[in-house]
Amino acid sequence: MAITLLNPMGLPEIDAYRQVSVATGSKLVFVAGQVAWDADGVTVGEGDLAAQVEQCYLNVATALAGAGASFDDVAKLTVYVVDWAPAKMPLFLEGVARASAKLGVTPVPPGTLLGVAALDVPEHLVEVEAVAVVG
User: Fold this and answer.
1) What is the dihedral of CA 41, 57, 94, 3, to 10 degrees?
2) What are phi and psi of 92, to 5 degrees?
3) Where does residue 30 rank: exposed (0-12), middle (13-18), buried (19+ CB within 10 A)?
4) How far is it, in rounded angstroms, from Cα 52 to Cα 34?
5) Whole-prediction pTM value?
6) How far is CA 28 from CA 44, 73, 130, in A?
7) Helix or strand or coil: residue 58?
8) CB neighbours of 82 closer than 8 A, spacing ≥ 6?
9) Cβ contact 102:44 at 8 Å
10) Between the CA of residue 50 and those of 36, 55, 57, 125, 133, what are the distances in Å?
11) Residue 117 and residue 80: Cα distance in Å, rounded?
12) Could you read off the pLDDT of 111-135 as tens digits, one per residue?
């Protein structure tokens, strides 16, 4: 496996992700920000953060598979959430859990969650991009 995920001693252990990823592979995969569109370009879960997070993670998995990768190869995620507030964390984690159940994997690479004013269209609440390394 090209990615090893760690929570080094001296840093807080966070259930939602790991603090560090060590990449030893040779093929880099950069996945553009994925929004809650289905394969036909229709927004899934309009107004529902958990549903949109789930769809974004499923779309990232589809994009990774197209490049011969999976969430096991992800070195870092960046997540953008419209009007982020800590009170939204349970809905965010619900969406991740639902995607994890469908994918059979818990995507916990290092990540950054950023609150933003808006995304590409008003109905999109979240966007997820990934960087993966394949051995």
Assistant:
1) 180
2) -60, -50
3) exposed
4) 10
5) 0.89
6) 29, 10, 11
7) helix
8) 115, 116, 117, 118, 119, 124, 125, 126
9) no
10) 10, 9, 11, 10, 27
11) 10
12) 999 999 999 999 999 999 999 999 8
